[in-house]
């Protein structure tokens, strides 16, 4: 009887092993059934299946589903794909299709299909018949063989950038491709964004919220329905109304801040020509043609300065000029000086200074965001 507990433990171990083996077999059968069912439902098992999927994807605007596994896209990490939303906004996509016949020849076949485009004006639709070459791809596993198109109709759309922008607009949708997808290009100093694109029309420009706009509106570029060729577009930018308005507002706010100062030489603003910020006297250099206050006497040592007030008399109109070295930087052209009036009492006597100063402002923008600088010193 001493061996009974050992025999019981051995029997339990064998039973547990049989149960685990049974579960393993059940799981294996289940996985096989599921994978076989999946392949049966989703693999293009008939020669016409890839043609039907391709034309249906174009009709429905499924850009990502059709191109995400394209050999060109998988081989080039800088080659992007337009989103489904962008492609659904493309004019010229087919409105419908039907398979006419299939002509098999071993592991190859020719599939003829009719496609049509509805007339948005309500006129008769336009129809075309096209032949597609397909081939069978053998794969291991049950029902894994599939048919594929010999050469899907897609082409590269290249957007040459005049500067390193961070967004663009295609078919009214804002795109922000990663910076590392810009490839160097002598035709675009900012590099080039490239996209694998399906047949249709692509309106390329800049978003309405951008700090830039396209200098000349661009006509939509077309990727042909069959045998499409690469398409290229070069953007030529200029400041948008948003960049003008925000730069002008920064200048206005800066001048308003300076006008509200109660110091002779407020930091970062125009300053008295007779006194330093600490009240030390200066000898002003007269400027010919400056008008009243052109020949002010030097400041007085130890003078009691009170009732300091600033007033902006005039400022030049804003003219933005692109920097030659940095195409993203725009400077306000100091084509004439701004003029301020400084009044104060010096030992009780009212003094008026008319001060001309350079108004320097700059804005640097990548399109989506901008940095501004305003002052009397060098801008940017």
The span between the termini is 97 Å
SSE series: HHHHEHEEEEEEEEEEEEEEEHEEEEEEE
Uncertain segments are 31-44
Helix content: 10-25%
What shape does the CA trace take?
Answer: elongated
**How many domains would you count in the coordinates?**
3
The radius of gyration over CA amounts to 37 Å
The biggest sheet, with number of strands, parallel, antiparallel or mixed sense and barrel status, is: 5 strands, mixed
Transmembrane segments: 21-42
Keywords: Membrane, Transmembrane, Transmembrane helix
Region (Disordered): 276-301
Provide structural commentary.
There is one protein chain. By secondary structure, this protein is α+β, with helices and mostly antiparallel strands. It has six helices and 23 strands. It has helices at residues 4-42, 49-60, 63-67, 71-75, 84-88, 241-259; strands at 79-81, 96-105, 108-117, 126-137, 146-149, 155-160, 168-170, 173-175, 183-185, 188-197, 200-202, 204-205, 212-214, 221-223, 231-234, 237-239, 305-314, 320-322, 329-332, 338-346, 349-357, 360-365, 370-375. The strands form seven sheets. Strands 1, 6, 9, 10 and 15 form a five-stranded mixed beta sheet that branches. Strands 2-3-4-5 form a four-stranded antiparallel beta sheet, with helices on one face. Strands 18-19-22-23 form a four-stranded antiparallel beta sheet, covered by helices on one side. A hairpin with an 8-residue loop joins strand 3 (108-117) and strand 4 (126-137). The termini are far apart. The model is unreliable at 31-44 (pLDDT under 50). Residues 276-301 are annotated as: Disordered. Keywords: Membrane, Transmembrane, Transmembrane helix. The chain crosses the membrane at residues 21-42.
